[in-house]
């Protein structure tokens, strides 16, 4: 039946993700080997000009190994993640991954920097802080259990924004679809459980080792980032924080159930952004607040066989009002996404910052 | 023989480029048709929220037609471009183009804005002006024919920077490898020949019509840009300006022949950037100046079967000195490349700005 088909598809997807994680090391090392070969094919006179170049490639290989060891920890830890035993049993089977899947692994490593490192603080200040400030003012938290204030963070990635709300006393739930994100956030949030200083900054990632363009220095390519910058396990009200796996539209169907919804770089991941806006409206309580920040880099744009509706922001605002929201704030803020601060190329987003209220 | 093989390869490449230009309209319209289909598949209630959406897609189709008519003019005009008769005879044959080739066509249209429109003035001020200023001071032009001062602009794209030097009285030659660029610059520079105000601003391009992400408004996607903003035919010393087609390393072999070399977003197009640096040194006269501005977005990075050596900028500087140059200036400037000023996503480059002298 339809349900069984969906289950099998999810299983295959899970296996492909595991396989992509496992394929990271080999793929990156192959690329560095090619770097080495190309360098060795240069005229002798050229090679002599850069006596340290091959050593730098070796340094990069060590970084790849560090990342691969981290990935191994992440995937091992995640075999306990799902109660569904099928996942575990089938882990030894492999489903072929593509270079697209490997790119997801690489961007997941960069996402760690964004969400859980001191290096990501600037990005978080730009993207998360305005959302947090807005919800703090409009829906202040309440430490009293019966009157707790809820925040839903769809597309929560590695979970930092949802965790920031939980830390401030909200009943906070992150929601995420991507297994890449779910594996990694599960590892960071649940493995770092101790109460000591040593429980954070305990892991290392080399986020930029796969990028050999626009480097001012090889030092930047091999840079090590320690994480997490906080201990995610330290929460005054642990039972108020959770991350729910799955598709936003599948999971959140109950009307009038949330005090606030915070979306950051999320709405453009929709096949149909109108459905997202309608659903956010539907699940908010009367008087509830939606805060959105992000660009419109539609996720399914140009991908064949994937329906995609690419509205301009003008149209998005039109839909927001027609769905019934009252727009309380409509501004633009500069944002970044897993930006390498040392790179000669930066992607800068003009993010829509929207505060909308359900009457 | 080897020479014949090269000739055939060039011919096939030429035909593929012509074919890609010709395929632009169909490909873009197909994408807009898909937009339309996806919108029509939305629930009735969603479609009703955006009564103008389908009309906006129709507007975009009109823009694609305008671009296609321009492309048709460009390719028709360029059948006279080469003296080699073979090109003309084989124009009715087609060589299959890829989506990669179509992207080149789309970026060529954006390049028109960068080089030959008033909208590109900001980009040109950031990228070309520092180079022009530096060469004006270090190698001032001389209107006297016998003592003319020469500038070579390898990777000149659509030729604006080379033209700016010619306009200031230099003996200026642009060099370009890409047929996409060569066709288009040939059209703009040679077709706009009149001396009247009407001879510029006479063509229209819709540079952003293929981008449906990160639009604040559909108006931005369908924006019309007039060009050229100057009359390229108006030059006091016409015989001092030329554009040479071909590979930089193949064409420029004569030692001590140029007063200055200006490279803008060029050195990273090399298979081996060391060869470029050596060659620039070789062709400069003693006392000659090389001014470079750009990032290190290596052109052949990650392309299989294409050798690529990706040096960091530190290593580039090391090579520059080892080759024999004296570094006179080593700074960083913000630059952009065919940036859509209205888009919610911008690419910002930290460009190396280097002035080096051959002793």
From TrEMBL, chains A, B:
The keyword Mitochondrion does not apply. It comes from the Eukaryota. One of its GO terms (biological process) is methylation. Pfam families: CARME (PF07942). SUPFAM superfamilies: S-adenosyl-L-methionine-dependent methyltransferases (SSF53335). SMART domains: N2227. GO terms for molecular function: carnosine N-methyltransferase activity. Its EC number is 2.1.1.22. Transmembrane segments: none annotated. Keywords: Methyltransferase, S-adenosyl-L-methionine, Transferase. InterPro entries: CARME (IPR012901), SAM-dependent_MTases_sf (IPR029063). One of its GO terms (cellular component) is cytosol. Belongs to the carnosine N-methyltransferase family. This is carnosine N-methyltransferase. It comes from Ciona savignyi (Pacific transparent sea squirt). The lineage of its organism: Eukaryota, Metazoa, Chordata, Tunicata, Ascidiacea.
């Amino acid at each position: 039946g339809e349900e069984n088909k969906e289950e099998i598809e999810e299983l295959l997807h899970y296996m492909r993700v595991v396989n992509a994680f496992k394929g990271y090391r080999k793929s990156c090392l192959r690329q560095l080997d090619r770097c080495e070969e190309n360098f060795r094919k240069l005229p002798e006179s050229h090679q002599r000009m850069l006596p340290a170049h091959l050593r730098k490639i070796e340094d990069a290989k060590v970084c790849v190994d560090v990342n691969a060891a981290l990935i191994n920890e992440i995937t091992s830890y995640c075999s306990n993640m799902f109660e569904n035993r099928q996942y575990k049993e089938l882990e030894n089977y492999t489903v072929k991954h593509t270079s697209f899947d490997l790119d997801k692994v690489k961007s997941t490593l960069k996402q760690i920097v964004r969400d859980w490192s001191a290096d990501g603080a600037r990005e978080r200040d730009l993207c998360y802080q305005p959302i947090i400030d807005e919800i703090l003012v409009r829906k202040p938290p309440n430490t009293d259990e019966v009157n707790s204030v809820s925040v839903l963070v769809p597309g929560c990635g590695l979970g930092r924004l949802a965790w920031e709300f939980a830390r401030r006393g909200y009943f906070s739930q992150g929601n995420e679809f991507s297994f890449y994100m779910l594996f990694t956030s599960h590892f960071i949030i649940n493995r770092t459980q101790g109460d000591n200083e040593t429980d954070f900054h305990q892991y290392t990632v080399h986020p930029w080792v796969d990028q050999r363009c626009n480097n001012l220095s090889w030092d930047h390519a091999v840079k090590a980032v320690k994480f997490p910058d906080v201990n995610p396990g330290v929460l005054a009200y642990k039972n108020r924080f959770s991350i729910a796996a799955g598709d936003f539209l599948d999971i959140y169907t109950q009307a009038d159930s949330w005090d606030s919804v915070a979306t950051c770089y999320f709405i453009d991941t929709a096949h149909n952004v109108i459905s997202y806006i309608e659903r956010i409206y539907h699940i908010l309580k009367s008087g509830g607040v939606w805060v959105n920040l992000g660009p419109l880099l539609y996720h399914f744009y140009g991908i064949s066989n994937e329906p995609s509706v690419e509205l301009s922001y003008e149209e998005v605002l039109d839909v927001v009002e027609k769905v019934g929201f009252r727009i309380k704030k409509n501004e633009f803020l500069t944002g970044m996404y897993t930006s390498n601060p040392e790179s000669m190329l930066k992607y800068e987003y003009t993010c829509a910052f929207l505060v909308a209220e359900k009457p």
